[in-house]
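Moderator note: this is an archived Q&A kept for reference. The question asked for a predicted structure of one protein chain; the sequence and the answer are reproduced below.
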Amino acid sequence: MKSLINTALKLVTIALVVGLSAAVIRAQIGVTGGRIQIDSLDRLDAKAAEMVNVSLDERLLQIVPQAFDKNDPDEMKAKEIIAGLKGVYVKVFEFDAEGAYDRQSDVEPIRQQLKAPGWSRIVEVRSRREGKEIEVYLLNNGSRVDGLTVLAFEPKQLVVVNIVGTIDLEKLRQLEGQFGVPALEIEKDSKPQKK
């Protein structure tokens, strides 16, 4: 009887550990739904010569399409894209001088969030000559993309884009340049574009 109770207690302990692990993963992926915390960058507002801050949560994304013109095909495309999103968060900082922000203390905390389960870096571009870096991360949930984050920085500029929700990459290409989302240059395929 004592061994049966010990076995039962061990099984309960294992179930609790597995359950808590799943809860932690859900907290990192599901509950946040792909949203990363970028508010730490607010301290750069005072240093920036120019700053853009876009914060559209799910509630606002439901209101915005109501103002769209039903006769405008571009606005209807945007409405379709927005329908699957839960948030669009953008911060862009332009500085007068180099060194106004620190890549280690300002960017690394964001990168750490993107090391959570489900996130994967799909694009990395670095130019040491120009001091430019671009990183694109996707949050995969099985075969579905539930988040996208873009980090782009150069000596006098820092850009963070976080799009939350179910994302169709083909449709997302159509969102570039709207609602504060910069041109991400997401290619339809890997073939070079003719100029």
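Archived answer notes: The chain has a mean pLDDT of 75.
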